[in-house]
Design brief:
With 194 residues, the protein is an alpha+beta fold. Helix content is 39%, strand content 25%. The protein folds into 2 domains: 38 residues, GTP cyclohydrolase I, N-terminal domain (GTP Cyclohydrolase I, Chain A, domain 1); 139 residues, GTP cyclohydrolase I, C-terminal domain/NADPH-dependent 7-cyano-7-deazaguanine reductase, N-terminal domain (GTP Cyclohydrolase I, domain 2, 2-Layer Sandwich), CATH 3.30.1130. The structure holds guanosine-5'-triphosphate.
Length: 194
C-alpha cells in the first residue's frame, strides 16, 4: 500500500498498461477526453480488487463478543459487486448470511465487511459463497452457518449469451443447516415468509 494514498503500489504502471490498451482498442489515447482515463481506470481497478490486501478472518476475530444467544442470526440483503474472473466483468446482487452462535457473536457490520473483502477480488460466485461461509465457520465456530448468494452476471447480459434477467443462486452451509428444517427456516426468513 502506498502510504501517501489509499491506493496500492504499481498504480502508475497499471495506468500505462491501460493507456496501451486504449490504443489497442482503436482509440486515440492522447485525445483530451481520455488523458486522465488510464489513471482513473487503474484506480477503479485497484478499488474493485482491494480485497486482496485484506484479512477477512481478522475482521471477525477483532469483533468477537461472548454471548449466550444461540438462536439463528440472519444478516440478509447485503449488496455486493464483484468481478468475474473469466471476463473481468461485474457480477452483482445480494448475499444472505445466517449463523447459530456457539458462545460468541460478531459485530453485524463485520459480516458485511467480510462480504466486501471476498467480493473485491476476481471471483466465481461459487468460490465467493464458500469463502464467506468458511471464514465465519473458522472464526466464530458456530453451531451452523449458511450463505446464499443471488447475482446477475454482466458477462451473460452484455455479451455472450445476452440473457438480461437470469439470476444465479448459490448456497453453502454447515452444521445445524445440514437439517432441511433449519435451512427452510432461513429461506423463509430471507423470503419474508416467516
Ligand atoms: N460457474 C460460474 N461460471 C461463471 C461465473 N462467472 C462467469 N461464468 C461463466 O464462465 C464461463 C466461461 O466460459 P468460456 O467458454 O471459457 O468463455 P466464453 O467463450 O466467453 O463463454 P460465453 O460466456 O458462453 O460466451 C461462461 O459460461 C460464463 O457464464 C461464475 O461466477 N460461476
Amino acid at each position: 500500500m502506498n502510504p501517501e494514498t489509499e491506493y496500492r503500489d504499481g498504480l502508475d504502471e497499471l495506468a500505462s498498461h491501460y493507456k496501451h490498451i486504449l490504443t489497442l482498442l482503436g482509440e486515440d489515447a492522447g485525445r483530451e477526453g481520455l488523458i486522465k482515463t488510464p489513471m482513473r481506470v487503474a484506480k477503479a481497478m485497484q478499488v474493485l480488487t482491494r480485497g486482496y490486501g485484506m484479512d477477512a478472518h481478522k475482521v471477525l476475530t477483532d469483533a468477537l463478543f461472548k454471548e449466550d444467544y444461540n438462536q439463528m442470526v440472519i444478516v440478509k440483503d447485503i449488496d455486493f459487486f464483484s468481478l468475474c474472473e473469466h471476463h473481468m466483468l461485474p457480477f452483482y446482487g445480494k448475499v444472505h448470511v445466517a449463523y447459530i452462535p456457539n458462545g460468541y457473536i460478531t459485530g453485524l457490520s463485520k459480516i458485511a465487511r467480510v462480504v466486501d473483502i471476498f467480493s473485491h477480488r476476481l471471483q466465481v460466485q461459487e468460490r465467493m459463497t464458500l469463502q464467506i461461509k468458511e471464514c465465519i465457520e473458522q472464526t466464530l465456530h458456530p453451531l451452523g452457518v449458511m450463505v446464499v448468494v443471488e447475482a446477475k452476471h454482466m458477462c451473460m447480459q452484455m455479451r455472450g449469451v445476452e440473457k438480461q434477467n437470469s439470476i444465479t443462486t448459490t448456497s453453502d452451509f454447515s452444521g445445524a443447516f445440514n437439517q432441511a428444517k433449519t435451512r427452510q427456516e432461513f429461506m423463509n426468513l430471507i423470503n419474508n415468509k416467516a
